[in-house]
Design brief:
By secondary structure, the chain is an all-alpha fold. The chain is built from eight helices and no strands. The chain has two domains: 80 residues, Rna Polymerase Sigma Factor, Chain: A; 76 residues, Orthogonal Bundle (Arc Repressor Mutant, subunit A), CATH 1.10.10.10. Helix 1 packs antiparallel against helix 2.
Length: 188
């Protein structure tokens, strides 16, 4: 059984990645914060007594479900209240700057030239843009496998699909990203 400290440490360790993953899905920082907060609350309320090694999979599944719930609510809201969208402010464009939220492993500013820093920033923006352009299931599989570093079985459980589907989605995402980045002259 997870202690209160172990649960707290776990939530601290996943909050940033969960936020980034949510922003990639919903493209709205405030909604992403709400989704992550709801997911953390549900984990603590309903599964806080589970063993620590079960928390990552439970959290990923809860986060996926909360994201799907958000999309369902948005769809219903648009269907019922489409005229109210005229009252939304135009400054809520949902832009997410990966570089503002990316914490570097080491401070490279002293050894990196301004040209290298700019080039790296441009490449990261291009990669982020291409990840956002992926279809939803491909993006989810890609982020879970390569961002969250889950294995195929864990990703399948988190997405609620078969391992074969995860492999297909990941393969298609990698090939699409590779083609798109290669077309822009970016070789990784």
């Amino acid at each position: 059984m997870a202690t209160e400290k172990e649960l707290s440490d776990f939530l601290k360790s996943v909050e940033r990645r969960a936020f980034k993953r949510s922003v990639y899905h919903v493209r709205d920082e405030e909604a992403a914060l709400d989704i992550v907060q709801d997911s953390m609350m549900k984990l603590a309320e309903h599964y806080g007594d589970k063993p620590v090694n079960e928390l990552p999979m439970l959290f990923q599944r809860i986060l996926s479900n909360c994201t799907l719930d958000w999309f369902r609510r948005q769809k219903t809201r648009r269907a019922l209240f489409s005229n109210l969208s005229d009252f939304e402010t135009a400054d809520e464009d949902g832009d997410f700057d990966l570089l503002e939220n990316l914490s570097p492993v080491a401070d490279t500013r002293e050894s990196e030239s301004a040209e290298d820093t700019t080039r790296r920033a441009q490449i990261l923006r291009e990669i982020e843009s291409e990840i956002e352009a992926l279809p939803g299931r491909q993006r989810e599989a890609f982020l879970l496998r390569y961002w969250e570093e889950l294995d195929v079985a864990e990703t399948a459980a988190a997405m609620g699909c078969s391992e074969g589907s995860v492999k297909t989605h990941c393969s298609r995402a990698v090939h699409a990203l590779s083609r798109a980045l290669k077309a822009k002259g970016i070789q990784l």
